[in-house]
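Many introductory courses stop at the sequence. We go one step further.
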Amino acid sequence: MVLGLNLFVGAQIYLYSAQAGDKDQAYSNLYLFSHVLERVRQEYVDGDKVSYHDLIYGALKGMVNTLDPHSEFMEPVKFTEMKNDTEGGYGGGGLVIGLKTNAITVVEPMDDSPGLRAGILPGDRIVKIDGKVTERMTTDDAKLRLRGAPDTPVNVTVFRPATGETKEIKVIRAVIKVPSVKDVNNRTEFPIGEDNIGYVRIIQFGEKTADELKSALKKLESKGVQALVLDLRGNPGGLLDTAVEVCEKFLPRNQLVVSTEGRGSTPKREYRVPGRDQHPNFPMVVLVNGLSASASEIVAGSLQDLKRAIIVGEQTFGKGSVQSVIPLPDNSALRLTTAKYYTPSHKVIHEKGITPDIQIPMTEEEERDLFLKRSPGALDTLDDKERERVMNARDPQLDRATDLLKGITLFTKRTPAEKVSAKK
């Protein structure tokens, strides 16, 4: 009996060890996958849903989605949409969206966009798109459903936290041209403020962003700009190379902007500015908030580490990982997290974010009112009481940034004797 018990226990331990060892064995696990694939294909009740193509695509999506929120298997249509994102034009409702408190949230409707004209406002939570619940959607899924051919409708159900109201809004899609660099009035005129303080907002980091920023800075410099507010609030990121090109405007030649570290075929890499397009070394403040992510955090983290700018606002999102887009033979693609970003001082961005030098919180209502105030077309959607409140709204983060720059420029204009006296 004792001998039999020992043999039984020993056999169970052996089987457990063998199963544990199989977790990283390719052939045994591929056999399991192919076995399940065939059983599903042969016996699943709805035979029209079990083509090899559909099953493999579903398996790939599920496999990649288990890795992290940013890796994704993209079908051909979605891959095409992603490429359109970086090229600056598409058909849709003109809504900039992000994930906030686990809900698809409108960061802003673009100026004079179909979404804005229909009455969608910043902070609105999109709960349905054409009747499809968004609870389990990624932001990319939501973008794909919101976009479509110009002049076609999309029904968007929104919940408005400020009022507790939920309603369905019909949006007629149009061709959306996306300038990624705007001024304080959500336009591209770039007026200069009092004390010669300029303001530039980068909405996202696309292929044309660096050129648009260059044009904006030239306009401000022609007007005598002496200090700059660079607004990255609500900016979800974009292209890594573009983030480096943006930093190039403000940093000396060959300066390290960001480094990446991965594994396998993704070695450690450093990104430095080529120094071809540097602008005057005027004082700067960078504005960030909880929706500033990825490339926004690279720019803010680099300028903060190198003492080139003061960071003001709220803790950033903390999306500091590199997604490599790998085209596949059937025009689908794999977007895979292959590395993480590190600032010049080797601080990790991922899941930590950038901590502002000066933290100034804003409520959702303040953020909403601020957007409406900057968008003249949006005011037409409000009643008289709301319009008055919005017109009197302040931007505490921008106010603080402007005060800082006024103090810095005033101090730098003092004579050496005045500076010594002030220090005493």
